[in-house]
Automatic annotation (TrEMBL):
Belongs to the YajC family. The gene is yajC. Keywords: Cell membrane, Membrane, Protein transport, Translocation, Transmembrane, Transmembrane helix, Transport. InterPro entries: Preprotein_translocase_YajC (IPR003849). The chain crosses the membrane at residues 6-22. It is found in: Cell membrane. It is a single-pass membrane protein. The lineage of its organism: Bacteria, Pseudomonadati, Pseudomonadota, Alphaproteobacteria, Rhodobacterales. This is Sec translocon accessory complex subunit YajC.
Amino acid sequence: MEALGQFIPLILIFAIMWFLLIRPQQKKMKEHQAMVAALRRGDQVITQGGLIGKVAKVKDDSELEIELAEGVKVRVVRNTIAQVLNKTEPADS
């Protein structure tokens, strides 16, 4: 019984860390993954490096082509997109 009493504080510390640190981080990761998956041509984005540009082409599942200025295009990995500034509206069919 005494041994169980010694583990209760450890269990409580783990539970508090779960709800304050781990769970919010997992939620934030899921939101970022959904944002990155929804990127399409015309969206204005900010990369983790601070570059602001417009998505010119969605190459594949892991790569985008971003136009930083007229005629200046760079290839970036999707996961390096930090924020979407403006979403484009889907084209009417």
